[in-house]
Amino acid sequence: MLFQASLLLLPMYLLLIQSLLLRSADAWAPVVSPRPVPVAAYTREFESRLSSRTCRHSSTNYPRRSLLLRAAEEEEGQSTDDDKLSTLDKESLIEMECFIYSRKDATGTTKLELGVLEESVLQPVCAWTTEEAFDDYIEFVVDEEDRYSVKLEDVTVHSLIPADDLSYGSRQVGGGKGPGNPHGEESELLYYIRKEALEGIEVTVKPELEITW
Fold it and tell me: Is residue 123 assigned to a domain?
């Protein structure tokens, strides 16, 4: 009797074992995850700002260049007339604002230049290249040799660089190297300005100010 009962229960045992084996196989099956999105697609712009570089700041005498950026449709020979430009109240300027100003040089010629307000003082800014740092923005910095070289009372302020055309950053002075900043503790502000906002402005270019990380 016992043997006959065992034979009757055998199919049930086989079905139970088969079910357990199938569940075990599902548990150990490899998990297929969605294909990841390349990280480079999100970091391309960031890498363009902080590309691998080395410090090139040295005592080498680089030529200083001034470039007048003009719109393509602007007529050749058009000069800047200080009296025809709008003016801005200097007292309305606030810290870290970037603005367009003019002053007459030794020949009496008026030119438009770019400056910022740092520590309530006008500081002229310059670039080390007119190539875009990212998108269509050019990178500017205050050269220590030019700091305090222009007085706010001696210039005419015409307009502000719009907030949509201006961005900020910072970098270590001297790339964090050299006797002036051996521990990389000192930093300086960077100003990123959209290229189309610089039309008609005299941009001073100093290649020796480029610091590569």
Answer: yes
